[in-house]
Each structure stands twice: as C-alpha cells, then as structure tokens.
Amino acid sequence: MNVLDALCGEHAVLRLMVDDLSRRIHEYDVQTLRATVRQFEAALISHAEIEDDLLFGRLSPSHAGIARSLTAMNGEHKLISDKLSHLFDAEAAGIVPRYRKLAELVLEHFAVEERVLFPMAATMVSSVALDELGREWARRRCVDLPDDINRGPGHS
User: Fold this and answer.
1) pLDDT score of 110 more than 60
2) Which residues of 14-45 are buried (b: 16+ CB within 10 A; e: fewer)?
3) Which residues touch 79 (CB under 8 Å, ≥6 apart)?
4) Is the CATH number of domain 3-144 3.30.70?
C-alpha cells in the first residue's frame, strides 16, 4: 500500500467527520459537542503527525515548490490545531461560526495536499519508498495488510 493512498483514505474519513459534525452541530448540547470535537481533534492531530513523520520529512526542501508547500502545510497543521483547541473559548453562540471556519480550513487544506503536495511527493519519492512508508503507516495504525501488500513490489 502506498502511503499517499493511505493518507487520502484518511482524508476521506476525516471529511465524513467534518460533514457529519457540520450537519448535526445544532443538535448537540455543549458537553456533547465538546466530546465530539475532541474525538475529531484527536483523529485530525494523529493524521497530521503521520503526514509530518512519514511523508513531509521525506520531501526535499531544496526544491522551491516543495519548500513553500511544506511551510504552508506545516503552518496550517499548527493553525488547525490552535483553532481546535480554542473552539470553545467563545460563548456558546460563537462556537458554530468558529467551527464552520475551521471546517472550511480543514477541507481546503486536504484539497491542497491532494492537488499539490501529494502529486509532488509522487514524483520526488520512489514508488518503493512510498510503499515502504505505506507499510509503516499500516504498522502505526495497526492495520493488518494482506501479505502481498506487506511484501511490497517485486516480492513473491
């Protein structure tokens, strides 16, 4: 399994979480909303850490486009984390507008990664290395991949 495919798969799940919370946010009392957002926050932070550890560290910042993209993506990871941690600093009426802005930021962040950074990574990191990183992603996520995927390309 290629790490880029795994990260895009995580984006899909996180998008579902964003969409579900966006649709149902008015149904929650503040306590339930806080618990739901904390679960989302944990998933999102874990995802960002995996991206940073497995992929972003493998990209060469000597390439100008990558350097700018990495700086932007790392800055957005921090901004998203900060916005999540301060979401409930506002009065109850301010939580929904803050969440909507956060959701827009998260969705746009994923779109830029998928449209710009991941294709750049696919050209800069060998397919063998991307497969190795995919196996490391699976190990960290406790995903039991089938043997033919675990062995990687060229192994019987």
Assistant:
1) yes
2) beebbeebeeebeeeeeeebeebbeebbeebe
3) 105
4) no
Surface-to-core class of residue 89, CB atoms within 10 Å of its CB (0-12 exposed, 13-18 middle, 19+ buried): exposed
| CB-CB contact of 25 with 87 (8 Å) | no
Contacts of 114 (CB under 8 A, 6+ apart): 8, 11
Tens-digit pLDDT profile for residues 69-85: 888 888 999 999 999 98
Parse the chain into domains and list their residue ranges.
3-144
Question: Per-residue confidence at 151, pLDDT binned at 50, 70, 90?
Answer: low
Structure tokens at 81: 């984390």
Alpha carbon 125 to its chain's center: 19
pLDDT of residue 153: 54
The pLDDT, as a whole number, for residue 89 is: 86
Rounded CA-CA distance 118/98 in Å is 28
Q: Please tell me the number of Cα atoms within 13 Å of 85 on its side-chain side.
A: 7
Tokens 């990191």 belong to residue: 125
Whether residue 156 is predicted with pLDDT greater than 90 in this model: the reply is: no
